[in-house]
Amino acid sequence: MATVGRRTGPWPALLLLVCGCTLLRLCLARANILHQKLQKNSHAPPVEPGQPLRVMIGIYVESIGKFQSTEMSFDADLYLYMNWKDPQLAHNEGEYILINDPKLREHIWMPDLYFSNSRSAKFHDVMVPNFSIFVAEDGNIAYSGRLTITVACNLNLVNYPMDRQKCQIRTLSYAYIANKVNITWFSKEPIRKNSAIGLPEFVIDEISPSYCDGTYRYAFMDHSYKEDRFSCLEVNIYLRRAIGYHLVQSFTPTALIVIISWVSFWIGMIPNPYTQMVKRARPPSQRREPIRNPIQQNEFIRTGFEYSRKGLTVDKYSRIAFPVAFLLFNVAYWWYYLWYLTEFPVE
């Protein structure tokens, strides 16, 4: 006996259509609210009366490389994190609002940070601009972006190749004084780095944050200028040169050449195949003619014997003096560079 299916009618499809329209309307309303807030937001910093805007900074060091002694510079690939509060962007959506559209970013006030000792800097934009902005309910903004900078670093090569270097990356506001915009480090782990960073010539001992606040002149005119205090942040990168490469390429071959030179102290005056070979290799013009006068010949033999005895005495003492002097020199040399400069570094 066949069973006839019950017809449900168009109500389920109609219900899905209504739900979809409702969700779309909510999304559009949310976008419109954010768009209206961004349109109203000015390009001036959201400063509350009587206190500066606090901008907190964090940096993740992705890679460091291209240390060039001739150019006195290096490259750094960084992730820059910034956090500040803009009450004009407060909302009641119940969660963070993500903004990754460059056109919307133009309507948000951004800290005008720059790197004072950089030679060039650029933000990444493959495949899309590498940035994100999250806006919290209370107007707190979390920004992150990826950039690559070429930084100037004055290398002190006095103690090369066992030198230690300190390179810095400075960032501060370009236009706003500390009373308007105060930039500070994150209170917890302001600087982090990729543990896989490896440099062919240097070893990274430490990367630490510090402050470089100071008074600067700005707004220059023909006969006047302004002077005020700016807040400044520093990334201190402490480096020491990897000695392994120079130990194999420079120190070891030089030491072997010095040690081989001591073999001559054990070569006596008795002719041997090596000295005979050298004698035969001399051109006739340098060969000594035989002495025919017996008196001159005896005098030559006596003088040669005296000189050979002095030479053997010098060789005898040199067998001890040269290795001992070389050993003492190495003890003083390596103690100074490996211990003394570590305990009492020369700035």
TrEMBL record:
Q: Which InterPro entries does the entry link to?
A: GABAA/Glycine_rcpt, Neur_chan_lig-bd, Neur_chan_lig-bd_sf, Neur_channel, Neuro-gated_channel_TM_sf, Neuro_actylchol_rec, Neurotransmitter_ion_chnl_CS
PROSITE patterns per the record? NEUROTR_ION_CHANNEL (PS00236), PROKAR_LIPOPROTEIN (PS51257)
Q: Which residues form the signal peptide?
A: 1-29
Topology versus the membrane, per the UniProt entry? Multi-pass membrane protein
Q: Where in the cell is it found?
A: Cell membrane; Membrane
Please list every transmembrane segment annotated in the UniProt record, as residue ranges. 251-270, 317-337
Q: Which residues form the Neurotransmitter-gated ion-channel ligand-binding domain?
A: 41-242
In terms of one coarse class, where is the protein primarily found?
A: membrane
Keywords in UniProt for this one? Cell membrane, Ion channel, Ion transport, Membrane, Signal, Transmembrane, Transmembrane helix, Transport
Asked if Nucleotide-binding is a keyword of the record, the answer is no
GO molecular-function annotation terms?
Answer: extracellular ligand-gated monoatomic ion channel activity; transmembrane signaling receptor activity
Cellular component annotations (GO), alphabetically ordered: plasma membrane
Q: Name one Pfam family in it.
A: Neur_chan_LBD
Family to which this protein belongs: Belongs to the ligand-gated ion channel (TC 1.A.9) family.
Report what the protein is called.
Neur_chan_LBD domain-containing protein
Query: Organism source for this protein?
Result: Bursaphelenchus xylophilus (Pinewood nematode worm)
